[in-house]
Amino acid sequence: MCSISGFGQTGRNADRPGYAHLAHSMAGWLSMQFLHRDPPETPRGPGIAIADTTTGLTAFGAVGAALYRKAITGEGDHLDIALFDSLYGSNDSSLQAYLTSGEIDVWYHPVHRAKDGYVTALAGPDHASWRRTCLAMGQPELAEDPRFCDQRSLTAHLNDAAEIMQNWLVSVTCEEAERALTENHVPCGIVYTIDQAARQPQVADRGLTVQVEDPILGPHDQINSAFKYENAESGVRGPAPMLGEHNAEVLRNELGYDEGRIAELSSQAVLKQDRI
Predict the structure, then answer these.
(1) CA pair distance 236, 232, nearest whole angstrom
(2) pLDDT digits over 65-92, tens only?
(3) For the CA atoms of the chain, what is the radius of gyration?
(4) What angle is formed at CA 226 by the lines to CA 224 and CA 229, rounded to 5 degrees?
(5) Which of 20, 82, 198, 239 suits a disulfide with 52, CB 3.0-4.6 Å?
């Protein structure tokens, strides 16, 4: 059995109600995003239940490991998975840096303005990547500039290199920047708006949406499973069930109840089922 809760089954917070936004606050995630900036910003929610989704994947991995152990030893288990624990364990950069050195060191992935939006890309940090960036910008001679001619010089003048790249990015569109950088094998990505992110070609290539016939909403696209297997299938098989939709099926097929017993439970209002 896998129990998922806000703070787990033990500890001083075990009886407290918990939601994703509490884990975001208490695990340091919000402060990392806002309070540790220079200057600090007023914390605000991230717009996605990061703790919920991270905890779901944590539980998935834990259940898989427990089933493997059961197959070997025959012994079952009770898994205690918490939103707070899962998000705390995911912060392997700033929290671990503090635990190791006692110093607060928060690093943010760079996001740069382009002519018509924003792009995420790095100037360097290794010299080979900087050389490819120079080619993408049409300025290959910069790779031989004394400030950037080798790894030591580039590291010492990385802010100057980043400024040069930023000046180039504001002169081109996001699409032009992505094409030039990608063609030269420089990691980059456009900061997509929600509508752009939902319909980008990679989503279709990976089968990340699937059309579902919902009894209330009708046909609509649904986010599909991110799990990909070579010899098995994983994905959305239908709409989310109505409340109690599968009561009879589970009781009949999994627990061996006969129709009379199921009908008796329904008549006594023990079983509840929503109707469309």
Answers:
(1) 14
(2) 999 999 999 999 999 999 999 999 998 8
(3) 26
(4) 110
(5) 20
